[in-house]
Structures are given as structure tokens and as C-alpha cells.
Structure prediction request, 299 residues.
Amino acid sequence: MALSGEQWSIGYGGREAVIVGVGGGLRSFTVDGQSYVDGYAEDEIAPGWAGHILAPWPGRLADGRYTFDGRTYQLPLNEPDTRTAMHGLVGWLRWRAVEVESSSVSLECELPAQPGYPFPLVLRTRWSVGPWGLRAAHYVSNVGEAPCPFGLGVHPYIRLPHGDLPRWSLAIGAKTALTTDERRLPKGHSDADFTEARPIGDTVLDTTFTDFQRDGAGVAAVRLTDGDGWGVDVWMDESFGWAQVYTGDTLEVARRRRSIAIEPLSCPPNALKTGEGLVNLPPGGLWSGNWGIKPHRRK
Prediction:
């Protein structure tokens, strides 16, 4: 079997996506042959968590330690340089298909109770493509007998068919950014940059944004455009109150600053410790959230 696991190709009217079994995430997304995510090969370990689902917490957790409901838990540290536990427990598990159609696939992952996170969950994601682009609908059930702390994020790397990252314009539409310490953990808030579209240039971003402008349906969007009318929106519903934007400066040289990660998050990094945005999911409870990628081109 390929290193990225089983593959499912879904399509609709020139829009094609490949979803993978390892991490349950997005390996590629094209429209009329033009790529809008920076993907990876079938027999390759996803670089930089590309396309993976991040749960039951996204981002970094300081020292891998948190307290919930009066008890303290310790998780393994998978980013030793920052002494953090990063991006949850399902990103490298195998997900199985529970429903497959020509334009959609639903994958499911059963996360067992374990040391550091003794809360069993069932996660399901429905990936679909249509005239609106690509959509991901996430559902997470607490199948245990106790409440559990929970958060979810997704890690797509977005690119445009033409030009390169310094010349692309970015509009985040958020009022607030989180400042970070030397371990890249949140330490405070500041006014956000890129509230209006402007070229990325040499700006380095590995930043969490919040307080988004939303439309009447509660949808926020981060927009990336080039000078020739090509663009893409990463949109997210109100279940995602934060987004991480990362210009890939610490990736391997071949992938560095050739795309930009725009990561919908239900809570900010370190939420298991701080409680900010964290979901307290009761026994039998269900959390859901939706986001997507919508390419567009100015006529």
C-alpha cells in the first residue's frame, strides 16, 4: 500500500480531488487541470502535515500537558525543539471509507481512549466537489462516558496556478492576530495585518487570526489572488473561529514559500491548556463544522 494509504478520486465538471486514507486528508485539488493545493505524491509521507486533519487539538500544546475536569494529563512531545505536542492524534491514523460516490467520499476514524487523552471519539469527514469547488464537512462524536475537551483543524497548503508566493495578494479579513513567544505559542493579541488585500512579498507568517468578518450566513473567507485575475477563497463556517496562516518558511527547501497554508481552526493553538475556544463535548455529543476551497477567476 502507498505511504499515504488508500486513495479516493472524486470529481465534478472539471474539478478533481484526491483524498487519502492516512490522515483522512486532501492530497490534491485541481480545476480544469490547474492545481489549487500544494499536494504530494501517492507514495510519499505528507510533508508539513499537508492536507491532514488535526484533532483532537490543532497547533501546539505547551509541554504536552493540560488539565481537564480536575485531572492533569500528559501527551507525547512530537515537536521536541519547542517542547510541544502538536496537531493531535489522528493525523497519521488510517481512515476508512464509509460512503463513496463519484463526487464525494466520507471517511471515518475511530480514536480510542489512550494515555494522555482517555476520551474515545469517532470522527467522520465528507469530502465533496461541485460547482462551488471543494467542501469538507466534519462530524465528531464523543462515544465515551465522560465529557471531553476537543478542537479540530485542517492543514491545506494553497497555491495559485500562476505566479509565485511573493507576488500573490492575501486578504485575511480578520481583526485580531495572536502574538507568539519563542516556542511559537500564543502569548497575546495584536491588530491583524492583511485585513485588506496586499502582496505577500517577503512577509513571514506563521500566525493565528481571529475576529473574522462574516457574511449573513456566518461564513468567513481568506482570499489569495494574483495579478492576472486568478484567485481562491478558503471559506469556513462559524464552527471555525480561527485560522492559521503559514508561509512555509520552515519547510524543506524544495517546498519553502511555494504555497501558503490556510488552516481553519475551531480553537487556537494551546487551547487544551488555556481553554480558549475549546469545545467541552458531552457524552453522546456531536460537533460539526464546514469549510471549503473556492477557486475563482475574474472575467
